[in-house]
């Protein structure tokens, strides 16, 4: 059984990770979405177990203590984490998994899964990013300013990623990510690993 | 002006490089095809300057002497080479170039263009490859046997390539190559190189 690919979709807060990820999942129904755990409050329309596993801080700390999280990070006062077991079982079963997480969490996943595919969603410009953060209409001015500072710092972490996908238009961004996943499945190293020893495979042919 | 990508499409003799390349060019009209020089005789339907620049051995040796070839290799008694000037000018002008060349030539290009995208077209199996070589109907039995031995040796060079694309079905193989080209344009290193210094780009935003 060939192991699935771990696709990590990240990028600065407000760049549109959630929207891109949800459109991508509709276009690629075989891609398994890793639902994160978080201590932040649900936004309107968000469903527990679908968008996030919403946890109290006590519950979250218990998961940390059991080493049940692949990564966890605090971001603007809330905790986010990736349940480890689900990701590992899905990859072992040969299915690709997509994680949509904050920049800090993605870099922690990279420490444990350097073979993952790390995609950084980039805003067309920082002005555009500010408009998106403001336009969400769910944050105070102080929060917006803080988020912009964090977003600018996060942009500087792009060099740790494999790919930079500009989110100029959602369909175009999704097409680029689909192409990246297809290309990663064609990596020569992956092909050789799946064949095992090439001479043996040739003998079988 | 962003530099174009050099896409090198190679693989064992008889795998279908020519067919895949010609379908790909119809699907991606912006991809500039690098026409190789060769001393081999034209096959039926091949046009000088379109499929190859057909050269005498003397003309070919003159190009080698002038350093006018990016790579050159002898293969089953014939010389093949890539005119250097055309490739370099096209890349500098921001267009992607595709080279469809034999395995030996591709590895020589890699020495000069390690930043190129090296794609190895793989047969579904060696039996399938033998059928394709035999089915072409233009070669003697000795030539077929020699080509099979060469093809098996060539398969062992796959590990020097970035991608392995199985040519099970032409449209599927072309879709994979299109995806690889799209993905390579999204490489974080390419994005950062094009931005120059990221902080400066942020200030401009």
UniProtKB/TrEMBL annotation, chains A, B:
Any single Pfam family the record assigns to this protein: Guanylate_kin
Binding site for ATP: 11-18
GO cellular component, one term: cytosol
EC number(s) given by UniProt: 2.7.4.8
Domain of life: Bacteria
GO MF annotation terms: ATP binding; GMP kinase activity
Stretches of the chain forming a coiled coil according to its record: none
Taxonomic lineage from the root: Bacteria, Bacillati, Bacillota, Bacilli, Bacillales
Keyword Lipoprotein: no
Database matches in InterPro entries: GK/Ca_channel_bsu, Guanylate_kin-like_dom, Guanylate_kinase, Guanylate_kinase_CS, P-loop_NTPase
Name of the protein: Guanylate kinase
Subcellular location: Cytoplasm
Keywords: ATP-binding, Cytoplasm, Kinase, Nucleotide-binding, Transferase
Function description: Essential for recycling GMP and indirectly, cGMP.
Annotated catalysed reactions: GMP + ATP = GDP + ADP
Gene3D superfamilies noted in UniProt: Guanylate Kinase phosphate binding domain, P-loop containing nucleotide triphosphate hydrolases
Gene: gmk
Guanylate kinase-like domain residues: 4-182
Sequence similarity: Belongs to the guanylate kinase family.
EC class of the enzyme, as a word: transferase
């Amino acid at each position: 059984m060939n192991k699935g690919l771990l696709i990590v979709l990240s990028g600065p807060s407000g760049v549109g990770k959630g929207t891109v990820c949800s459109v991508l999942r509709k276009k690629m129904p075989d891609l398994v979405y890793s639902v994160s755990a978080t201590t932040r409050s649900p936004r309107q329309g968000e469903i527990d177990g679908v968008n996030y596993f919403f946890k109290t801080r006590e519950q979250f700390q218990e998961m940390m203590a059991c080493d049940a999280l692949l990564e966890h990070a605090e971001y603007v006062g809330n905790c986010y984490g990736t349940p480890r077991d689900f990701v590992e079982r899905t990859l072992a079963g040969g299915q690709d998994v997509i994680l949509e997480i904050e920049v800090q969490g993605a870099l922690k996943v990279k420490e444990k899964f350097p073979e993952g595919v790390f995609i950084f969603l980039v805003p067309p410009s920082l002005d555009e990013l500010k408009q998106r953060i403001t336009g969400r209409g769910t944050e105070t001015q102080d929060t917006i300013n803080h988020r912009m500072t964090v977003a600018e710092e996060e942009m500087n972490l792009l060099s740790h990623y494999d790919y930079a996908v500009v989110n100029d238009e959602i369909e175009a961004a999704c097409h680029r990510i689909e192409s990246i996943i297809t290309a990663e499945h064609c990596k020569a190293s992956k092909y050789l690993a799946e064949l095992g020893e090439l001479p043996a495979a040739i003998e079988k042919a």
